[in-house]
Amino acid sequence: MIELAPSILSADFSRLGEDVKQIENAGAHLIHVDVMDGHFVPNISYGATVMKSLCGRTQMPFDVHLMIENPDQYIGDFVTEQTEYITVHQEACRHINRTVQHIRSMDVKPGVAINPGTPVSALEYVLEDADLILIMSVNPGFGGQRFIENSVEKVVRLREMIDRKGASAWIQVDGGVNVETGRRLVEAGADVLVAGSAVFRSDDPARVIRELKSF
Ligand code: DX5
Ligand code: ZN
To answer: For the whole model, what pTM was predicted?
Structure first.
C-alpha cells in the first residue's frame, strides 16, 4: 500500500493544529516535517519547536526531512515518541554511514535523501543501512515547484538497486507530487509520496489524499 505524507510546509501556520487534524481525518499516514536552515537550501522554514507543538495533537508519526548543514548536531532535537523517520541529505553528510547509525541509535528509522542532481549510484553503499530513501523531485527549498521529469527514471533505477540487493528501504518521493505525477511515481516503484501544495492548497484536501492513496 502507498503511504501518504503531507508536508506541513504548505499548511496555514496560524491554524496548524486544525490543518493537521484535517489531513489525519482524511487518511494521511505521516506528517512530513520540512526543516530548512538557509544554508543547505536557500530558505528557512521552522525547527523542532514547531514540530513538538504537534506532539499529542495527532496520532500521525513525524517524518522529518532535514535540509540542513551539519545534521548530526541537530538530530537529537527532533527525536520524540512520535518521530518515526529522520531523513538527512547525502550531500550534507561527510560520513553518511555514521549519521545513519546515529539516527538508528536513537530508536528512529534513518532516511537518506538525494537532490535532483545526485545520481542514484551515490546510495549504493548506504542503501542497506537505511529504512527510507528520499528522491527529491524538485530542488529542495520551496513548496509549489514544478516536478522534475527524470525523477521517475531515478525511482525505477533505485527500485532495481533495492531489489537486486534484497534491501528493504522504502522509496519516498518529494516535490511537485500531485495526482498525475504521483500515479507515475507509484508505477515506477515509489512506496511513500510526499505532497505539500497539492494537498494544502487544494479546495478539497480530503479528495486529493484519497486519490493519492488509491494508486
Ligand atoms: C521541498 C520540500 C517539500 C515540499 C513539497 O524542499 O522538501 O517537502 O514541501 O512541496 P510540494 O509538494 O508543493 O512540491
Ligand atoms: Zn520534504
So the answer is: 0.98
